[in-house]
Amino acid sequence: MKLTFYGGANEVGRLCLLLEENEKNLMLDCGIKLGQKTELPLIHDDDLRNVRNVTVSHAHLDHSGYLPHLYAKNAKPNIFMTKPTRDLVAVLLADYQRLQATKEDRKLFSSKDVDGIVRDTKMMEYAEPFDADFKLTYFPAGHVLGSAITTIGEGDDRILFSGDICMRKTRVLDPCYRNITAKTLIVESTYGGKTDVIPSYKESYQKMISLINQTLDQGGHVVIPCFAVGRAQEILLALDDYMRSGALKPTKIFIEGMITKAMKIYRHNAIYANDDIKKRILMSEDDPFNSPNFHHSRSKTRKDVLSEPCIIVTTSGMLTGGPVLFYLEALGRNPKNTLIFVGYQAEGTLGNKICAGERRVLVGEREMEISMRVEQVRLSGHADFNELVQFVRSIKGLERIFLMHGEKGDLSDALSKDYQVISPKLLEVYDI
Questions:
Q1: pLDDT digits (tens, 9 = 90+) for 146-186
Q2: Which of 46, 81, 152, 410 could in theory staple to 159 by disulfide, Cβ–Cβ 3.0 to 4.6 A?
Q3: Cβ pair 325, 363 in contact under 8 A
């Protein structure tokens, strides 16, 4: 059996691996890398057209964004994912198709390719084995709704593909599933550095609520850019809870961009959420995804949003496009306002530059000075360094580890005494 890394080796993004055995093959995720320039997996078109099966761990574009490129290149593999992932992928790919950054990108695939992916996807349930040349089983990954850990094969020699995992219970999801036996693990290492220790949710939210209250007290706006899928739902439900408890001052929470569509998908797939969410919906008819505290602008110019202090939760999380750029131009020059980053900022993105301290930046095509307060609150749907070590050590019968979706080597050092640890390189082929 062979494993090739066409993306996701020593980098965060464009995760794309190919597992092969004789005539059988399976692509593990099919992502793109977002940043100053969109980077695609390094797989040749001829090899792509030979791919028979693709499994997608979750909806984020760094794991799913290459799917429509397959159809555009006349590759027609079987595509597998959970139902929430399929529903979220439909929204994210449609937006990706509309908002591709350059004219050259627009030629790469069409809306028909996106429609074909959504139409042809085979939806699988957790804990129910299925065949994709290899025997596969999905288990909850805790990262975003519908995200999956995947076991490949049967018995003690199984391969475990983690996708992105979260080891903490969130407002929407339970932690990732851990009762697994596998000989080989392919694991994410987004936060694979020793210093990558993420504070507790309680500590992070205390900081966020304090920042928001300070900003509202001085008559300012709070802008929270975040990923439409995963972080947005966690943050919105948390803000609603703190407002109901009285810890957060009463104010309107405006929702912008694709977050609205994602919230509806979360609501329609609430059966995949944790018991707390299901009980709120089924027993008390309290819909956490449609709170009276959530609002949408009634004006094309967003005059109603700008007219009074409020909280704005908007895409995109790395300031690469979307409504956040409007708010940055409208509010960025006023020191009474606050910009709160809550997620990963890829190298070269506007979000990364501002987080690094740059204050004279290009917003769209205009250069401007950022005078608003800029803060970071660490809220992640990924396991941190210590949690990754815990996850690895929880796997029974484990002998070999491939690190993926990360840039730091500390995790390899921490695990190499007990396991064979491989930090793969792009386009390298490994026996497995």
A1: 999 999 999 889 999 999 999 999 999 999 999 999 999 99
A2: 152
A3: yes
From 348, 376, 404, give the residue that closes a domain.
376
Torsion-angle region of 142 (φ positive above 0: left; ψ -120 to 50: alpha; else: beta): left
Residues 190 and 212 in one domain: no
The two tokens of residue 376 are: 């970071």
According to the model, what pLDDT value does residue 106 have? 59
DSSP element (H, E) containing 5: strand 2-7
How do 400-404 and 184-188 pair as beta strands? parallel
Domain limits for position 372: 201-376
Coil vs helix vs strand at 164: coil
Residues (pLDDT < 50) of the chain are 101, 103
pLDDT of residue 105: 52
For residue 234, give the nearest of 140, 310, 317 by alpha carbon.
317
pLDDT of 108: 85
pLDDT digits (tens, 9 = 90+) for 227-265: 999 999 999 999 999 999 999 999 999 999 999 999 999
pLDDT for 129: 98
Alpha helices in 166-286 (DSSP H): 201-217, 231-245, 259-268, 275-283
Instruction: Give the CA dihedral 421, 425, 431, 432, nearest 10 degrees.
Output: 50
What's the CA angle centered on 143, arms 138 and 149, to 5 degrees? 20
Q: Could you tell me if 37 and 184 lie in one domain?
A: yes
190 and 206 inside one domain: no
